[in-house]
Amino acid sequence: MSLRLKLATGILLSGIAASAASAQSLVYCSEGSPEGFDPALYTAGTTFDASSHPIYNRLTQFKVGTTEVLPGLAETWDVSEDGKTVTFNLRKGVKFHSNDMFSPSRDFNADDVIFTFERQKNADHPYNKVSGGTWEYFGGMSMPDLIDSIEKVDDYTVKFNLTRPEAPFIANMAMDFASIQSAEYGDVMMEAGTPEMMNQAPIGTGPFSFQAYQKDAVIRYLRNDDYWGDAAKVESLIFAITPDASVRYQKVQAGECHVMAYPNPADIQAMKDDDGIVVMEQEGLNVGYLAYNTTVAPYDNPNVRKALNMAIDKQSIIDVVFQGSGQIAKNPLPPTMWSYNDAVKDDEYNPEKAKEMLAAEGVEGLNLKIWAMPVQRPYNPNARRMAELMQEDFAKVGVTVEIVSYEWGEYLSRSKELDRDGAVLLGWTGDNGDPDNFLAVLLGCDGREASNRAQWCHQPFEDLIQKAKVLPTQAERQPLYEEAQVIFKEQAPWATIAHSVVYMTMRPEVDGYIVHPLGGHIFNQVGLSQ
Amino acid sequence: MLNYVLSRLLTFIPTFIGVTLISFAFIRVLPGDPIIVMAGERGLTKERYAELEAQFGFDRPIYTQFWEYLTGVMQGDLGNSFVTKRPVWDEFFTLFPATLELSACAMIFAVVLGLPAGVIAAVNRGKFFDRALMSTALIGYSMPIFWWALLLIIVFSGNLQWTPVSGRISLVYYFQDATGFMLIDSLASGQKGAFASAVSHLVLPTIVLGTIPLAVIARQTRSAMLEVLGEDYIRTARAKGLSPGRINGIHALRNALIPVITVIGLSVGTLLAGAILTETIFSWPGIGKWMVDSIFRRDYPVVQGGLLLIAVMVMVVNLTVDMLYGVINPKIRKR
Hints:
The complex is a heterodimer of chains A (530) and B (335).
Chain A: H1 3-14, E1 25-30, H2 45-50, H3 52-55, E2 60-62, E3 69-71, E4 74-79, E5 85-90, H4 110-121, H5 136-140, H6 143-146, E6 147-154, E7 157-162, H7 169-172, H8 183-191, H9 197-200, E8 208-214, E9 218-223, E10 236-241, H10 245-254, E11 259-261, H11 268-273, E12 278-283, E13 286-291, H12 302-310, H13 314-320, E14 326-328, H14 351-360, E15 367-371, H15 383-395, E16 400-404, H16 408-414, E17 423-429, H17 436-443, H18 459-470, H19 474-491, E18 494-506, E19 510-511, E20 527-528
Parallel strand pairs in A: 1-10, 1-11, 15-16, 15-17
Antiparallel strand pairs in A: 2-3, 4-5, 5-7, 6-7, 8-9, 9-10, 11-18, 12-18, 13-17, 13-18, 14-18, 19-20
Helix pairs in contact in A: 12-14, 17-18, 18-19
Chain B: H1 2-10, H2 12-29, H3 34-39, H4 46-56, H5 62-74, H6 88-123, H7 128-142, H8 145-159, H9 182-189, H10 194-229, H11 232-239, H12 244-281, H13 287-297, H14 300-328, H15 330-334
Main location (chain B): membrane
Subcellular location (chain B): Cell membrane
Protein name (chain B): Dipeptide transport system permease protein
């Protein structure tokens, strides 16, 4: 039943119930409320869906559906020979949105780029402390150390001077925190004494302009008819915030939404069987793992770690914990990432052999703590259940498992400790589609006592990833990352468990939706057939 | 009566200070550091952590933090949310009308159905109607809200398509919130069909949220009525030949109302607790879900400010109930 027909029958049947908005409005049932609308202030995907994707652009951008980096507000860029200077040549004629408080007097230019990054970098910048600016992503991607200075060469040329060569920098410029803000809007709001409006009434250059937000209920956007790229196909975009997954499903069925995110794994089969619903799927750019503490005996011995990995029945975990919405991970990189080494062979599930290997290493009566995360994540929808399954698996090879858990903040901070007792269940979702964002962050020597939960520092691996980081082209970097994955597998600092499969559910009239591997929900290219 | 009200108001002050202290302490007693929760899996360097700690004021002694909070509260400043960066006060008053509207409708639903049901059950004590009503009330009281809500959505919104699935109004209507009460705003907007849409969106959440108070009020009214109906003065009234309607409606019900009003007052707390689930399921933008999200994120200003405001509301409701006792039973206000 078409949305319009549904609308008509809805009103007829009840006399009062109206359905979703007009055919030229795309209604997306989102899972939660954005924290705000300035993407640089936040880290949550829900916030980026509502802010950076519809409202803003970045210097570079990811091609939707891939991790390929394309020109954005920068048409071209040049990297100096030493890799320490990146010059962006900016696009001309790009218009900022306007609202009740602001009409731009000029097009986008170099001042906007400098404003966007200086407010995050420079503690003395008037916008640095506005809206309690913590700039977590800017800091998390090491930008304060990496960017030495930003220079305006002319109105349409900006030069970034870096402290070291860094190949992923171009991809980092496509990340949400790098969304370009209007310096002019910043000035106007500062003068009006309402600088926080940049976060509440956003102005960008993106395919949709922000219209209104009713907290925890509805976000409305209008198509930006002056957009520099391909204009959005629908006149307006509406986010109907619907926290419960079963209710989102009902709303799609009832025609109150066109698209919904994060279906319940248990509902997916019924959705696939329903002719009135289209289900799309793609491997997520993430990995769920069990990280041993490689600094504590006997887990400092790769053979012991390898034996333990062979005791884990990963297929059962995929069936029970992911209910099919996941796939077995053999590498620390997800399969959708360039340089994924498919030639690597996963450790076979063989409890007998694992038992023998443990005995050969003189390990007997081992007691292991497994840390189960208290929160749900795509890479691990139920850590407690996963830990229980591992407990059973390890019991078969004579290893006694105690499952521990802490409140999420405690979990994150205690699991970083160098002398931590036990193996930690955790995972990672990619930020910029670059292998460095997984291998260096999660397994590099600098990450110990931080995001490297295995506390693993293995020089041959470290040399490869450090070398790959500064090479200029993907072709040169790829073999190094492939080799690094082979070393990882031999050394087994983690048991790689799973990559999630991301599902998107929509009505048949939705046209052109593409599941994005970086996890965002993007509607620029989506239309509605009648 | 004025002395009575004033004496009740005086008890407000220590309660208010106590609640301020408890709400401040409560969220800090829970394990979990808001800065670490905010950074998530990505983590922070030690230097960055220290900077943020200083920015949020966590590096100062706890009594200094409390004193600053208390002085802020006295000046009407509850601080800004760590997450949205907006004033807690603004967020509360953006969301509170939605909760109030839903709770009021649920309470009206519960009272309008529960009072007569209880009276009728008491008058027909032991008969089929009494038993059927009380069994239904017990089922209503025991029903898990989550399950009940989804069942109603599947039947009435999914299969029958009589009501919308969730939200406060259909997305075709768009107007600026004037009061935050959707029934009023939709009427004031002048848009055709907007008010009807707002009403239709209220139906299921009202039933879900009102079910437990309805059951409690029906059962309480019945037992209070039964007690009163056994009193000597009712026998006297009957002996005088008064009509059953007059006896039950005026002599019995008025005296049975005191415990019923107590239950209604106490139900306000239940409604707010139930609102958390109801609001989540029906995507109702109220304070219930706001508070739960804030507890998970360790958003200290929102949790402590929200708890304080909710506590003040419950205190005001209790005060109103106390005053109503006085109106219904003059003996109480003379004590």
